[in-house]
Amino acid sequence: MKKYLTLVNVFLTFLLFSCELKENNKQIAISSPDETIKVNFFLSDLGEPHYTVSFKNESVIDTSKVSFDLKNEIALGSDFEIVKTEQSTFDETWSMIWGEDKQVRNHYNELKIYLEEISVLKRKINIVFRVYDDGVGFRYEFPKQEYLDEVVILDENTEFNLTGNHKVWWIPGDWDIYEYLYNTTKFSEIDALKYYNPKAHLGQTYVPENAVNTPVTMKTDSGVYLSFHEADLTNYAGMTLAVDTENLKMKSELVGNAKGIKVKRQTPFETPWRTIQISQRAGDLIESKLIVNLNDPSKIENMSYFKPMKYTGIWWDMHIGTGSWDYSGSYHAANTKYAKEMIDFASEHNIEGMLVEGWNIGWEKWWNKKQKKVHFDFVTPYPDYDLEEIVAYGKSKGVELVMHHENSADILLYEKQMDTAFALMEKLEVHSVKTGYVSSIIPEGEYHHGQYMVNHYQKVLEKGMETQVAINAHEPIKATGKRRTYPVAISREGVRGQEYNAWSKDGGNPPEHLTIVPFTRMLGGPVDYTPGIFNTSLKPYKVDNQINTTLAHQLALYVVLYSPVQMVPDLMKHYKEHSAMQFIKDVGVDWNISKVLDAEIGDFIVMARQEKGTENWFLGAITDENKRHLEVKLDFLDADKTYKARLYKDKPDSHYHNNPEVYDIEERQVDNKTTLALNLVAGGGCAISFIPKRE
Known about the structure:
The chain is of the alpha+beta class. Helices cover 15% and strands 34% of the residues. It is globular, with a radius of gyration of 25 Å. The chain starts with 14 loop residues before the first strand and ends with a strand.
């Protein structure tokens, strides 16, 4: 109970009862606390487990079956009887160490069904449903038992039988990478193999069938929003969803390895939660805390060694060609002189961190794809980079170094060096690291999203907890809410990020990209997208490329896209002459309250957040390739205060392609009765700070 003592305003109710069911009683139902969501569970005449889900009396998941295919065992999915059920109610309010909201309510009704085979083996499996006002989570428990000791799962067959040909925002079910543009199609039009292009990415990619990665989000004809994902992915394979476009059905398809094994576990164990977020409003998907609530409470009571922060760094240089990672390149940007200049800039602009990529030996072999192993060393810097001097200089300026570990997905080598690498950070009091896993996995035959790598990422989190180092993972396994249990999991990539605008000859990320990401990828957890490029034309460095947003849109992303670490990535000279830099100096990264004021997936989003520890609010609004007029009520502001609002907005002649870098700044006095009229140009946006006026 000690972990709950630090929770603020904890209210806990736990009602438990169990009942023995008669043989002919094969159906049971449970509803959400507000009774809008209902789950029905039943066994077929063959003893097969099925479930359905309804929302406000509308069926959203039709009759769906669950089963497991096991190696050298009879499939586990029929001949069951219900031997017992338990129902309970749980209600608490817990505090986020860092996050989108200071406090989170965790309120659900739970149904646990104990199943046992009628046949001689008498194998057992339990299914647990938790039904919230914002969705459903369910998982499987494999108890310790005589005839099911070691479990080798070849397939988990969890069905999601849809009730219509919904509109879907999806990316291919790649076993290695999530860095795709989102497609917007009807469910019947999903064709992951058509959009799969292994040459489009740095890492190894593999899409074995027509499947989508999660979170995958949908809208029904009646206007209900659904998003499918998983929570608490621990010692298990990541889940893609195979699609049956003819029968409008999805089925869990776990990421395996070259041996065809998806999961190998000893009983007893639990699977991750399979999750369905359900809402009548697009913004409610973002405000939902279903994913984090389905994870265990934090293993630590505070993280005083880590402060949410903005960080600058030697990163964008490499992507636009003004610097190189490796020491043998034309200009090795990761040098002591440049790092100190970055620290000075950060110190002047309320930026608390500075990232250096390319500081350690090994980068000169990274791009040689014939080289099976790239021998990175995570404690030895290049000759032109004085690590200890830079750390000390940063501390003198109030700027913390963000360490960087690119291991080129050589997991065997990285795990051999993890103890010494993290010990070095602990010694230098460096409290955050950006890890990277570009390339195919070593050992061969494993994939980024399989059980082997899920367990590796877990090892890194545990090492971070041990050494007080927070982890920002790139090329990661998906976020599934483990940040609640392991708050050192501060952020991760897992998205087609800003760098694609510098690489792509096909136009980069289109304006609609970031009006979809908050309702898909970001539902899993914080995203390290690296917003805030002011030189959106990329001239003179990348004359054939550009960023398809206005500058005001880039500012708004600091509010729209959540991460407790937000990069300020552009070259220093592109910020120094801009009065718009004031918004980046002011905007928070840790929040008391977050609200989606208005949104439609793929079109636009308006987000407001109140900074933790202050009374300041910030608003970000972005649109797709269409210009848009929005009326925004400021009723979220405190009723007894007036605010100075500073609006960083598009000019009337701004345009993401033709005139992206022009903007206006307007100051107004507002209160919670004010309605603002926002005119967003094509690919445009608006960023607003609201600072309470002092009498």
